[in-house]
Amino acid sequence: MRSLLTILAVLLVGIGLFLALRSTGPVFYLGGIQVNEPDHDAWVSSLAESGMNTVAVTVYAKQGDWDSTNLWWEEEEPWVIAEARAARRRGLDVALVLRVALDHAFERNKFFWHGMIMPDSDEALNDWFDRYSEYVLKWARIAEEEKIDILAIGSELNSLTNTVHVDELPALEEYWSNEEKVEKENAKVLEHRESIEGKEIWVRGNEGYAGLEPYLADRATAHALWAEKVSFLDTADPVARVNARRRLLADRWSELIDRVRQVFTGPLTYAANFDQFESVSFWSELDLISINAYFPLRKRDLPESTGGSRTALFATRWTTILQNVDALRDRQGVPDHRVLFTELGYTRRANATIEPWAAHGFSVLPSPSGTRLMIWEEQPDDPVERAEAVRGLYDANLALGGDFLAGILYWKLSTEPAHSEVEPFVLIIGDRADEDPLLAELQRFTAELPVDRRRARLISRWQGFVRYILPQRISN
Questions:
Q1: pTM of the model
Q2: For the domain that residue 414 is a member of, what is the CATH number?
């Protein structure tokens, strides 16, 4: 009898959902993550008044040595919960993104980032996942209690989410294990030694290096060790071992997703890095494909004569990117999964679209005459370039029907103009905002695409109930 009543209730909810779907268009989550805002209520009000509807909040666990099981987190994060509650009071949606920060106080992490974390054995990996599951489930329960709208169960854990079968060594691991290739690239850097040494050798968590050659040598040695360990290069069949590890990882993520579904009924996602989302195999177990979208939109600086054609160039590049994501959806059997950019960000400087993730240090780029050194902090201000990049994204999304993207969470937003001095990616919003053209381009996504917040919440909760909670109640 209980099962029959449950089924009847779901049918009634389904009728309501059908009526809601008929009356409105696709929802678009527009917002971002803040930079040390002292007043949550003022922050979320500024966000809403700027035409945005979503607050991105984040929690960090910390990782010790990159190949260890040393993972920890704060038991209480009242500031995070307070921000989520302030957003809800203001009628905004909340996306909670769970992250892991690699602690660079540990010497062995010097050249690495959190995307390279990989415990050094299957036993250690299982121990790590047991610990990580505690962290995720803790926040999944809080997310349910606080009525969080979207939960991302991880972000940019590249090595730990590489779960697609491969027929050869992955490109990154193959590069760092190939001494000849590394030396060839280092030679290009050394051509610019005089312009680099003494000021631009930037290493996470370290003050810097006395010389360029020691820096390049130490970096190559550290990465070669990483590649050897994560690719099992000391075994008879490294590719077979890589695929065995990927199967284990896929199983652990599936298990974690199932456990999270028991306690959180909203949409689940994972925030993949732009260069790795195609190596994630478990999108069908999630509700959204989420990407931290630092895609390069060009390879070199543009001559001034290109002028107003930059937007068209960026739109063309974005179209290719979105088509690649669409192909992934087809390959993984999720053609209707929408795509959320859990991070999209650019500095205010010229050439920000070449390597959008780059705010510090240097890069050696191709040029018609060979190579060109790009020192990122020396680039002149050009707030228009990032606005044109976002306009290109809007045009590409619109060309695909307008509902391909589920949203953009910008990295980062602030109401404090002084934050421009310490956060190169920041977009200032609120009463003290300057005339940054980026804001108008972001607003275009909600001003010109239909949005209904109540519809989004209805859909997400109904899907969670029907797909995960109802089967359990019927079986009981």
A1: 0.89
A2: 3.20.20.80
